[in-house]
Every structure is written in structure tokens, then in C-alpha cells.
Amino acid sequence: MSARGELRGWADVALIPVLNLVVALLVSGIVVLIIGESPMEAMWIMLKGAVGSIKGWSYLLYYSTNFIFTGLAVAVAFHAGLFNIGGEGQAYIAGLGATMTGLGLEFLPWPIVIPLAVLMSALFGAFWGWVPGYLQAKRGSHIVITTIMFNFIASSLMVYFINYWLRPVGKMAVESRAVGNFDFSTFDLTGAYIPSLRELSLAIFGYRLPSSPLNPTFLFALAVAWAVWYLLWRTKLGYEIRAVGANTDAAVYAGIRPQKIIMVTMAISGGLAGLLAVNEVLGAQHRLVLEYVQGAGFVGIAVALMGRSHPVGIVLAAMLFGLLYQGGTELSFAKPEINRDMIVVIQGLVILFMGALEQTFRPWLEALFFRAED
Amino acid sequence: MIKKLLGAAALTALMAVSAFAADDKPAIVFDIGGKFDKSFNESMFNGSEKFKTETGVAYGEFEIANEAQREQAIRNFADQGYSPIIAAGFAQAAALEKVAKEYPDLKFAIVDMVVDLPNVQSIVFKEHEGSYLVGIMAAMASKSGKVGFVGGMDIPLIRKFGCGYVQGVKAAKADATVFQNMTGDTGAAWNDPVKGGEITKSQMSQGADVIYAAAGATGLGVLQAAADGGALSIGVDANQNYLHPGKVLTSMLKRVDVAVYNVMKSGKDGSFKGGVQALGLAEDGVGYAMDDNNKPLVTPEMQAAVEKAKADIISGAVKVHDYTEDNKCPVE
Known about the structure:
The complex is a heterodimer. Chain A is mainly alpha-helical. In chain A, about 70% of the residues lie in helices and about 0% in strands. Chain A contains 16 helices and 2 strands. A two-stranded antiparallel sheet of chain A has the order 1-2. The radius of gyration of chain A is 22 Å and the shape is globular. The N and C termini of chain A lie close together (about 10 Å). The model of chain A has no long low-confidence stretch (mean pLDDT about 90). The radius of gyration of chain B is 21 Å and the shape is globular. Chains A and B meet through helix 3, helix 6, helix 12, helix 14 and helix 15 of A and strand 2, helix 3 and helix 4 of B.
């Protein structure tokens, strides 16, 4: 029996997100209807495109890998009562760490370079999260303002680095050269190149999977999700993070130093966002591309909200957004009338109902439940 | 329906599908700017539309929304047997190269970049030649002896425009001054008419009275500011003389629409060839625009000088330096 004013656990964890998703899809359906297409058909194409084939699944999981990292980043900060909206910039800066390691230490064998590049991604992201954390803890600058400003600083800084340091002479595209290479016929892996599952399966089993950027980073993301769970609920630091988030004054009384926790949490949060670079830079693009994060940092906020800041929920929510991304791509292939801007509208509606309007149905549901119980 | 079945077959037997590609339909993958960018992508879109209305053959199209979609889009068209598949812009090169290698029987084309594969036609333009011609015209039209250049994003391709332009200016008037500015370092620099206008005003305040814009939609702001401030401007890519009649000296034409149309046409009639197509003055890939809007501005002497330079470049008597060859410009 739940206390008055609170929903039962299952309703909170499952019913509200599902309800929000249904409403978001209904509104999207209306939008699709307005431009003269069948909503049912559109929905079917999206579903089939994302989960109806191995190729669809591969892309879905590839996109989810990004969202798991950024979702975890936002969630860890949430637990300390911090709203980190700088995942975009933290992941972007992390790309620099990954690329510099990959390009600078290309001569080392891959079992050394890849872990180093992963570490550097996390460290660069952590640094970019730590600075706003420091400003919040020591100077009282609000974390929301500083993290979003740091996105812009990251953006300008990266333009400079890619343009003037990393771009090969004479190349038009604003991107670095490749961080490594993989020849699957000889299994010759150089640099910080994480081969895709397709390349690995060709090299090891000689089996040709459909092409996609899905790479082993997805498994790494699942491991990181578990590690975040362990950190938050099984370690002293995790307890301190949650204590600061729940009640800072009480935490001080318990002997916790909130300033230190804020900085540590923001560094962890930035580091998690930075791991996105492992999937994108090392695993998918194999080079540092201008503005490569493409909004995944912001999607992480919706993912964390929808996943109730719990790693299991985040993995599931990330997969839902992976489905929307991949399904959306297939939809604009199948129906040129539903162009990419329409897809953004549909994704935006889901984010709106999942994130911004998350609590809309809570009072109604609560009323409904208590009437039933009384 | 048949296309869908083909698509399904392609998933299971990736490589086998090209055998079905007898009823070739062309496809085009637009870059992140989108097909209605009033510039590069839209010009290609117009070329594709022209092909469609003339031949009645529908073409596949896709607008990229993120990096991962580049390869996905090209591959999707390849899976479905589209041919030739055209990738718009240099940013698609890596993705196109990957896919083109796996589908040796399909035909591909890329604009503004070279991909060295037998089944890929790389279309590049000699923008420096066209810019040289408008540079001559600018120097002769200028009363102050000072002219301007406003580039979009600071990339070698745009420096190539600027370098050709300066060479033309100096060829006509050796002591002329050229102000060169880039709008920015990111893709946003292609679409910032306000900043383009500000740069133009700044150049005009230094005395420039003819300003050449090679900056996509940013150029619209350049043309506007020049027209408002009493200076002449030079458009780019498409014929932009009509935008401010009597105030746009000429436009440096870069015929991407013709290039796309030709690729689609050659794919249809079987005359498609791989390799590099460098379209310059001789091939009518670049040029300068003359119409009723700029007729009063261009004197017979100017036209004669430009025509002479054009003939000299085509014959090889004058060689315009290409900035991208060594990332250097002989004149500033």
C-alpha cells in the first residue's frame, strides 16, 4: 500500500512513461495526417525499419549506444541534484582526446591505443564537466547556465582545433584524418580504430552482416551502465552523491562535503558523456568530424528523464530513441513527403511529452488510483 | 512493389542485387544544407528536376540529417539498385568511397571532390578560372582601384575562388587592392546573410566598390548590402544578376545543375564514364553571366578583355593558379 500522494512503484516506473509515449505518438499521428499521409502506415514503416531486420536493429543499437552514455551522464548529475545540460559539449571535447590519442600514438599496437583513447575520451569529457562543477561549488555560478555556455565554448574551440590543427592540408571537409585502419582480410588493425561488428564478423567468421556502424562499444555501454548502478547504489561515493542530491543540509550534517561531491559528480558526468566519442569517433566515423555529436547530448536529458535516472530505464529509453532515429530515417526513405524536418517534429514531440511534460498525467493518475483505493 | 522486393532481396544477398539494376533510376543524396538552400544543393535539385521533366524518369532523393546517415543513405539507394547515385558535396566522399567499392557494378558520382574508383565519376570545377574572369571585370569596373571578396566557410575550396579572383584583378590592374574576408569556420558561414552584409559594409568603408561573394546564402546579404551602399557586387554559382538589376556586375557561374543533369542523362543512355571530370571554361562548367540586368554595367572594353582572357585560358596562353594544388596563392 503506497502512502497517500504517491503512486505505486510500477505505475511510476512503467505506466507514466508508456502513457506519455502513447500521447506523443498520437499527436505525431495527427501531424502526419495533416500533411496527408497515413499515420498507421508511417508508424508501421518506422517500426519495421527499426526492428524488422538485422540492419534496422544494428542501427537502432548504434544510436542507442550514444544515448546510453549521454543519458547516464545526465542521470548521475541528477542524483546529486545537478542539471547537467552540457553533455553535448563534454562529448564534443572528448572527441579531441580520442582523436589526439589515436593520431599521436598510432604507432602503438591497438590493445594499448584503444584503451588509452577510451581513457582520454573520458578524461577530456570529465574535465569539461569538472570546470562548471568547480564554478558551481566554489563560486556559486549556476550549473545550468555554465554547462550550456560551455557547449558554445566547446563548439568554437573544436572548430579551431579541427580547422587549424587536425585537418589534413588541402582537404575540404572539416575533419581530421582517420584515427586508424582495419583490414579484415588480414586482421590487420592499426591505431585506435574500433572495427564495426560487420567487419569483425567478416574477419572472424567470414560471415557478412548487413552494413551498419554498430560496434563493440554497445557492449561497453552496457557495462558502463552496470558500473553506474554499482557506483550509485553500492559505494560510499554513490551514497554521498545521492545524499547531496536529496538534501544538501542533511548531507553536511552527516559529514559529507557537498562542494567536493558536486565537483566529483560533474567530472563523472562529463566523463560518461565523453564516452560517446568512443562510439562515434573511434567506432563509427573513425575520424573527428565537425559537430559530430549532433544533438545526442541533449537527447540524453530526455533519456535520463524517461529512464527515471536508473541505468536499466536509461538503456531502455536509449533504445526507444534509437528506434525513433533509425525508424525516422527509414520513414523519410520510404516517404519523401515526410522529410527530415517532419522526423525532427516527431522526435521533438516524444521529447516534449517524455521530458518537459513528464508530470502532466501524474495528478490525474494519482486521483484515479486513490479513488479506486478508497 | 518490385522495388520493395528488390530491397528485401538486397538485404539478404547484398552483393547480388546489382544484377537486377537493369531499369536504372538515378538517385541523389543532398548534403546537410538541404535541397532548398538557394545555392549549391538547390542547384543540383534543379538539375535533377530538369532531368525528371525531360525524361519522365523519377529519381530517388534523400536529405542528410546526421553523419551516420551519409553512408546509410548511399547504401540504401545502392541496395535498391539505383544508378547512378550522386553524392552532393565534398563531405560525402568517405561514405561514397566505401559504398562504391562494395557495388562495383553500380555507377556513382560525386561533386566537388575526387573519389578514385573506376565506377565513380568525380566532378570538380575550375572555379579559379571563372573567378579570374570576374576578377578582370571587377578591376575594370572599379573606380577606386579597391575591390572586395567575401568567402563563406574558410576552406581551401573557397580560397580557390578568392585566389583566382585576385589573379584576375591584378592581371587587369596590377596596383589594385583586394580585401579578402571569410564569414566563418563552420557550416553556419554558408547561411549568415547578416554577417555577410556587415563584412561588405566594412569593405565598402575601406573604399571597395566591387565585391565578389562566394558564400552560399551568406552572399545574398553581400549583394543586398552592396546594392544599398551603392557598390557593385558579383554573384556566384547561379546567375544572381536578377536579384538587384543594375547593381550586380555579373555572376560567376558554376554549373552544378548541368553536371547533375549530365550524370543522370549519361546513366540513362549508357554513356556514363568513371574518372575525374574537371569542368572549366573550356567545358562551360564555369563562366560569367551576361543578361539584360547587367548589360548597362559592362562596357564593350570590359567584355572584350574578359573574352580575350577566356580564350587565353582555354588555349593555355594564360594559366590561372589553382590554390588547392599547393595551398598557396601567388598574389594577395
